[in-house]
Specification:
about 200 residues; alpha/beta; Rossmann fold; two-stranded antiparallel sheet; binds adenosine-5'-triphosphate; binds magnesium ion
Length: about 200
């Protein structure tokens, strides 16, 4: 049997609703008895950050110096590739991460995309206003406040980043709008893409 990657990457700016939309798609998959593996890339990074740098909090992880984040990212890519091999897998992640000084760190540089060989890249988006509101009411996380034009910029950068990954890997690109109070709709779209893998 030929092994192949069946990875669907789901990315988007913090608080846009990636995990919410993924969970909606997983409910639909469960109803159809379809098995989908989900890996939160950041959680795998936290495991490694804890082993290497004694960091246990994901909101502290993204504030680490970028050279340390890259070391963690490389090892995480290897682990995620192993855990997802030949299984339909959603990787919940970020195309770019804003560092403490406002620079963008690539979430899926070549050493990650080469390890994962994704089939589809999904970008979850919505308007900056809604993102800002979602961040402010989400008490489960420590979220940074950000001006709307910077949220817009981050979404633009993510499109460029995802397109570049598709250019290198041949993965397909899809944009899903997670409109206010319509996460169900976004989840349905994601589920259709998952079924196509
Ligand atoms: P992170 O990158 O930090 O993991 P995320 O993109 O996974 O964030 P979620 O945790 O899924 O974002 O959602 C952030 C907040 O937005 C949550 O409080 C969630 O309930 C809310 N939310 C998600 N989708 C919608 C939607 N369509 N309408 C209204 N609120 C939403
Ligand atoms: Mg999430």
């Amino acid at each position: 049997m030929v092994n192949e990657s069946k990875i669907v990457i789901v990315g988007g700016v913090p608080g846009v609703g990636k995990t919410t939309v993924i969970n909606k798609a997983l409910e639909l998959a469960k109803a159809e008895k379809m098995k989908i593996n989900t890996i939160v890339f950041g959680s795998v990074m936290i495991e490694i950050a804890s082993e290497l740098f004694n960091i246990q909090d994901r909101d502290k992880l993204r504030k680490l110096p970028s050279d340390k984040q890259k070391i963690i990212q490389k090892e995480a890519a290897v682990r995620v590739a192993k855990q997802s091999w030949n299984r339909l897998t959603i990787v919940d992640t970020h195309y770019t991460i804003k560092t403490r000084t406002g620079k963008y760190l690539q979430g899926i540089p070549s050493w990650v995309s080469n390890a994962l060989k994704p089939k589809i890249l999904v970008i979850i988006e919505t308007n900056p206003d809604d993102i800002s509101k979602r961040r402010s009411i989400d008490n489960s996380r420590l979220r940074d406040e950000e001006a709307l034009d910077l949220v817009k910029e981050h979404q633009e950068i993510n499109r460029t980043s995802a397109t570049t990954i598709c250019q290198k890997t041949g993965a397909l690109l899809a944009i899903i709008k997670n409109k206010q109070d319509l996460a169900d709709e976004a989840g349905e779209k994601l589920f259709i893409y998952l079924k196509s893998v």
